[in-house]
Amino acid sequence: MRHPKLQEFDDKMKHLFDEVDAYLEDRFGDRYPLHPARAADGSTANPEQSGLFAVGADFTAGYGSELGRGYLVAVDIKTLTEVPDDVEEEIDQVAVEKVSELLPVYFPQRQLEVTRDRRQFKIHGDLGLGGS
What we know:
Helix content is 36%, strand content 21%. It is an alpha+beta fold and 132 residues long. α1 (4-28) packs across α2 (85-106). The chain has a four-stranded antiparallel sheet with strand order 1-2-4-3, covered by helices on one side. It has one domain (4-125).
C-alpha cells in the first residue's frame, strides 16, 4: 500500500510525462521507423507503450550526486535505426525544456527544477510529501 500523497505525486508525474511524450511524437515521431515490436503512436492506452518514444522518470536517492535525490528523466527512442548522438541530444534537450515548462503547471505549489546531473537530467527540489 502506498501513501496517498505519493500516489497523487506519481499520478501527476505520469500525466506530465504523457504530455511530454505527445509533444515529442508530434515534433519528431516521423523521423525514424518504429521498432517492429512497437505499436503505432496512440494505439495503446498508455503512451509509454506506443509510438517512437517512451518518456518517464526514475527515482534516485541521489547518492554521489551534488543535487541529491530526484527523478532522472528518461527518453527512450524505440527504433532499430541508429540515431546520431547529436539528434539524441536535441531530443533530450527539447524534452527537458518541455518538462521545465510543465513542472509549474502540474506542481504549482512546489519548487522543482530540471538540471543536468552528469550525463542525465534530474528533476529535483521540493519532493517532500508534507505533513500527514
